Amino acid sequence: MNKSRHTINDTAWVDFYQQENPRPTQYSLPSIIICPGGGYEHISKRESEPLAFAFLAQGYQVFVLNYTVMNKGTTHNFLSETLLELHHVFELIHENYEAWNINLEQIFLLGCSAGGHLASWYSNQYQFYKPKGIILCYPVTSFTFGWPNNMTHFNFTLPSSAEYNTAEMVTSSTPPTFIWHTGNDCSVPIYNSLKYCDRLAKYHIPFEAHFFDDGPHGLSLANRVTAPDDNYIKPSVQRWLLWAIQWLEKQIQLTNES
Description:
Blueprint: E1 2-9, E2 12-18, E3 29-35, H1 49-56, E4 61-66, H2 79-100, E5 102-112, H3 114-125, E6 133-137, E7 177-182, H4 191-202, E8 207-212, H5 239-257
Parallel strand pairs: 3-4, 3-5, 5-6, 6-7, 7-8
Antiparallel strand pairs: 1-2, 2-4
Helix pairs in contact: 2-3
């Protein structure tokens, strides 16, 4: 495995985890872009490299986007800039897919918490580069569904919170979606995911959803690798990764059949 860093701007970069393809002359590999959480305040380490290794082990080339957040010294409304940063990752992949041994028809996107907001936002507002599918882990889908508690969370002024409601952005062009959440998430209420699923159903977007009864916000892999304390080790929730991989493989199979 090789790891390389690619600078996007002064406050954003992407780390690329590249594995050697055992059969490079026969096929290229699928890839996944990970947007960690952190409340647009910081980038969660527990949702970065541990997730990268988990998907790397399943045969994916992995990108972890360290997008612009508040603790990088920003004081202006940078939210729309993060969309451009994510777009830049897709550009990088398209420019280097041959050298990186990546299948351009099998590029997926994953977002956790606030990173789920960014991922769902991009998936509904993309230009040129549409993800094959999107995985949302306990995502924020609106700033009015319980997170943040108030707008003073941001160190800048938002002209209108309504324009950041990604559930309302869902259309018939939204990519297939895998989504999961816990019912007693006290930081980002499950309504964020329920509302998003409601909109996916309205537009007949294929989706798979899993809701677990117990678990704090920010579970990531829900195991010892990502748990800051024992409350974050949830064996019943750990199944989401297996189910997500199975869902990804289903999307890949649909690509191969088309």
